[in-house]
Amino acid sequence: MDHFTYLDGVMHAEDVPLPRIAAEVGTPVYVYSRATLERHARVFHEALAGVPDKLIAFAVKANPNLAVLKVLGAAGMGADVVSVGEMRRALAAGIAPDKIVFSGVGKTAAEMIAALEAGIGQFNIESEEEGVELAELAAARGMTAQCALRINPDVDAGTHDKISTGKADNKFGVPISEAGQIFGKLAGLPGVNLRGVAVHIGSQLADLAPLEAAFEKLGALVAALRGAGHTVTHVDLGGGLGVPYKVGEVLPEPAEYGAMVARVTKDWGVTLIFEPGRVIAGNAGVLLTRVVRVKRGIKDPFVIVDAAMNDLARPALYGAYHHFEAVEPPGARMTANIVGPICETGDTFAMGRECDALQAGDLAVFRTAGAYGATMASSYNSRGFVAEVLVDGDKFAVVADRIEAGAIMDAERVPEWLG
Ligand SMILES: Cc1ncc(COP(=O)(O)O)c(C=O)c1O
Ligand SMILES: N[C@@H](CCCC[NH3+])C(=O)O
């Protein structure tokens, strides 16, 4: 049961001390553990031992760092991508095109053409309109796109509203009530081989019941489609398995998820596709930061760190909890507001949090930052982009350079007529 514990991975399983990384690379910096990424890939794979025919495609959006993708690709994973940019990254990391699945509600014609030309394994079509357009693009090129139809099963995943994707009023997939009719229409088009269905109901799921409900609905749909004379060979069950963010928090283990999937799908006779993101990368990374100063507050002091909402957006965006602790715990504790330097009150990681007693200059980490961390960074307040480091036993490498604060990008122009 140690797959996602906090105290191994970057902080303890690797031999490179975080203070050395801070000294050599500077802070803030994301630090990922190769050993933990590989272990999570293996644990997830082993959890699905009861599923004979499968593709596990890492959700690139969770962590598109090239080195991370390379580690996961070498561990046997394919890629779930939602843009041509993610597709290019997966390919550059050596992931074979036929192990790439393209999801997303707004694929442009240019993106679909690029993915057709790259020969990706499957398009997850999110609407009738998209299916018709893809069919035309493929047929015009004498190609056949391998496709699944993404279904919106109208199941409440019980997660944060902003990352729920399977309720009827969410923008994803086609309503399950119309799925049979839309499948029939698209299956008849030249240019597509509609070979299955797909579902993804949301992220950071703390309970298997909504997933099971969605999968049951999908199973019934597969039976109905076959009853109507369609061939169904592939079903994509998406991602969504949650991870613990709080010490001691208990979430469904991958093994429990795998057992449920094997039970629900045992008679389906299809290749199953999985798109895990957070469960693979979340607890394989931390955001390493330094305390700039501690400011007296009316109630609790403000611990001002050099990381901010532009580096780790989840607390500001979803009110998300990230465990915060000193790299070298002083023993003493304090209650503090943990904030970044950005000029918005939203740049707050935690209010009234009990944590290690920290002083200016101390190093600390936000845990569980390997997924939806660096990938959601921005340069707001002209802070530049955070660096990323991969640790592997007794060595480490910078795998994404810091873009310095206030850097003027090649892409930026001041028109001559401004004088
Ligand atoms: C289509 C799709 N697949 C996979 C994922 C990965 O989800 P998670 O990181 O929760 O496993 C997402 C994000 O929620 C998604 O939108
Ligand atoms: N960005 C979200 C997850 C979104 C999942 C993408 N479908 C998070 O940080 O929790």
What key phrases describe this protein's structure?
binds lysine, 8-stranded parallel β-barrel, TIM Barrel, 419 residues, globular, binds pyridoxal-5'-phosphate, 9-stranded mixed sheet, 11 helices, alpha/beta, 18 strands
What does this structure look like?
With 419 residues, the chain is of the alpha/beta class. It has a domain at 34-281: Alanine racemase (TIM Barrel, Alpha-Beta Barrel). Helix content is 27%, strand content 23%. It contains eleven helices and 18 strands. Strands 1, 11, 12, 13, 14, 15, 16, 17 and 18 form a nine-stranded mixed beta sheet that branches. An eight-stranded parallel beta barrel has the order 2-3-4-5-6-8-9-10, surrounded by four helices. The longest helix has 19 residues, at 209-227. The N and C termini lie far apart (64 Å). The model is unreliable at 1-9 (pLDDT under 50). The site of lysine has 6 residues, from loops. Its EC number is 4.1.1.20. InterPro entries: Ala_racemase/Decarboxylase_C, DAP_deCOOHase_LysA, De-COase2_C, De-COase2_CS, De-COase2_N, De-COase2_pyr-phos_BS, Orn/DAP/Arg_de-COase, PLP-binding_barrel. The active site is at residue 343. It catalyses: meso-2,6-diaminopimelate + H(+) = L-lysine + CO2. Keywords: Amino-acid biosynthesis, Decarboxylase, Lyase, Lysine biosynthesis, Pyridoxal phosphate.
What overall geometry do the principal axes of the alpha carbons give?
globular
User: How many helices?
Assistant: 11
Sheet having the most strands: 9 strands, mixed
Give the names of the bound compounds. pyridoxal-5'-phosphate, lysine
